[in-house]
Structure formats: C-alpha cells, structure tokens
C-alpha cells in the first residue's frame, strides 16, 4: 500500500514589490544678485598748497562747496544729482572758487619798494672848508744797521790784508796760527839781511814765539822772501777782521737802499698801510 500523496497546493499570487522611490533634490535657488545702489559720496578736493605762501585774512576760503552740492539724498530709484554734470565742468567750478595765486610775496613780507634814482638836484655839494681825510702814515722802512766805529786804513794794513786773504783761500791758516794772523796789524817792514815785519796784537796769548815762527814760514813760502816776525802788544787798529766787518756793513747798507728804491716794493708799501719790510730780512747777494 502506497503512502498518500499530498495534493498540490496552488501558490497564491505574490504582489510585486513597489519600485524604490528616489527622492529628488529641490532645484537650487539662484542667489540674489546685488543691485548697485548709488550712495552719495562727499568729494573733498584738497586745496592746492603753496610752500611758504600765506593768504591774507580777508581772502576767501580756498574751497567753497555750494549748499546745493554738499550731500544729496539719493534714492534707489534715481541717479545722484551731480550725475548729469561732466567732470570737467565740476573741476572748472572748483578752480573758479580758488583765490588767485600770489607771487613774489613770502610770508607777511610787504612787497618790495620800487627802485628810484636819486635826484641830482638834491645832492649836497662838498665844500672845501670841510676837514679832509687824514693822510696815511708812510710805510715803515727798514732801519739801517748802526754805524761801525771808524778806523784808519793804512797802506801796510792793505798789504797785510791781501796776504792773509791768499793764505786763507789756500787753506794754510789753521788753529792758533790763523788767530795770530787775523788779530795782528802790520806796523812796519824793516829791511836788513833778514827783513823784520813787526806785528801788533791785542791778546797776550798770541805773543808766542812758536806761533810767530810758524806764521813766518808760511809767509816765506807765499812771498819767496826771507823774513822774520816780531810780535808786540798794543791796540790793533787795522787788522783784517775790521776790514771784513766794514765791507759787510757797506754791502748791507747798499742792499737796503736798493730795496727801498725798488719800484715794486714802493708800490706795495703805498698800497697796503700795514705793509713793512721785516728787519733782518734784507741780505746782500
């Protein structure tokens, strides 16, 4: 016996699942576009400033803004009241309100007085009775050196001076021999088998027989004569140094006279009141 078979069961109809619903995003709303609003702007034009120039108190202010142009209320519906004016017209109006520039006046300085020429008729003549200007003092001149004591030049002194100059130029006179030759005065030349020349000296220390023999030997070489020297004490009036001093004094005086007579020097002394020749600055050539 077979098992009972279950009767087939008819499947109930299954309702179809609804399709998924996709939520749609709302379309983006466009952002509001800002509408330009004409806002009234107060334009302040700075007045041109001139360096170191002041305007008088009575002058008008540099910039006068008309009341009608100060600040106007602008609505959103219309343009500003100055919108119809051109920029050039506005600048012309501003420049018309500026005071005219001043020239040639700095600060509060008054204008320069006009130049006038003096009237020749108003000039007063100079009378001769008026005191004249004091004459300029003559320029100071170089004082001449004091005069040297006078001495008598002798023929023997001239002969001795010439011989000593030759010995000095040849370099034959040295030390004490030179002192004896320079400080001596030739008093006499006595003839004889051996001529004797007599010398006079002022210093006792020069009366040394050894010095006299040395000087006599030098003179014999120069003159070619056989001679001897005799030295005595006394006041030598015509020794070689006195002749040298007299010659130097003569040349110095001649140089000073030449400077004073020079045309250029005289012109400079006359031109400059304080000009002077320094003492001791004049030297003979």
Structural key phrases:
6% strand, three-stranded mixed beta sheet, GMP Synthetase, Chain A, domain 3, mainly alpha, rod-shaped, 285 residues, 3 strands
What does this protein structure show overall?
The protein is mainly alpha-helical and 285 residues long. The protein has a domain at 155-237: GMP Synthetase, Chain A, domain 3. The protein is built from six helices and three strands; from the N terminus they run H-H-H-E-E-H-E-H-H. The chain has helices at residues 87-97, 155-169, 175-182, 209-223, 240-260, 263-271, and strands spanning 185-190, 196-201, 228-233. It has a three-stranded mixed beta sheet. Helix 3 crosses helix 4. It starts with 86 loop residues before the first helix and ends in a 14-residue tail after the last helix.
Brief digest:
The protein is mainly alpha-helical and 285 residues long.
Could you say what the CATH architecture of the domain at 155-237 is?
2-Layer Sandwich
The overall strand count is: 3
**What is the CATH class name of the domain at 155-237?**
Alpha Beta
Spatial strand arrangement across the major sheet: 1-2-3
Beta-strand content: 5-15%
Q: Give the mean pLDDT.
A: 72
**Treating each run of at least 4 consecutive H or I residues as one helix, how many helices?**
6
SSE order: HHHEEHEHH
CATH-defined fold name of the domain at 155-237: GMP Synthetase, Chain A, domain 3
Q: Structural class, from helix and strand content?
A: mainly alpha
The CA-CA distance between the termini, in Å, is: 186 Å
Biggest beta-sheet profile: 3 strands, mixed
Structural Rg: 65 Å
């Amino acid at each position: 016996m077979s098992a009972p078979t279950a009767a087939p069961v008819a499947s109930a109809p299954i309702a179809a699942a609804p399709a998924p619903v996709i939520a749609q995003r709302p379309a983006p709303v466009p952002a509001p576009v800002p509408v330009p609003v004409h806002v009234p702007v107060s334009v302040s034009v700075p007045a041109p400033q001139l360096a170191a120039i002041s305007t008088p108190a009575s002058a008008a202010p540099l910039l006068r803004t008309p009341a009608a142009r100060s600040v106007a209320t602008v609505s959103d519906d219309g343009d500003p009241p100055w919108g119809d004016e051109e920029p050039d017209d506005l600048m012309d109006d501003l420049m018309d309100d500026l005071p005219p520039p001043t020239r040639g006046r700095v600060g509060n300085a008054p204008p320069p007085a006009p130049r006038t020429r003096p009237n020749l008729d108003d000039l007063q003549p100079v009378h001769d009775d008026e005191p004249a200007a004091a004459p300029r003092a003559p320029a100071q001149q170089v004082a001449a050196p004091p005069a040297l004591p006078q001495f008598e030049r002798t023929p023997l002194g001239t002969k001795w001076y010439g011989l000593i100059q030759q010995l000095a130029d040849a370099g034959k006179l040295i030390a004490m021999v030179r002192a004896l030759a320079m400080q001596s005065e030739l008093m006499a030349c006595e003839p004889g088998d051996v001529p004797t020349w007599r010398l006079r000296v002022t210093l006792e220390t020069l009366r040394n027989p050894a010095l006299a023999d040395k000087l006599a030997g030098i003179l014999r070489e120069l003159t070619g004569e056989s001679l001897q020297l005799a030295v005595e004490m006394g006041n030598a009036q015509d020794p070689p140094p006195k002749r040298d001093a007299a010659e130097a004094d003569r040349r110095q005086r001649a140089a000073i006279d030449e400077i004073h007579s020079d045309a250029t020097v005289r012109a400079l002394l006359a031109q400059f009141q304080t000009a002077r020749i320094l003492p001791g600055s004049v030297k003979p050539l």
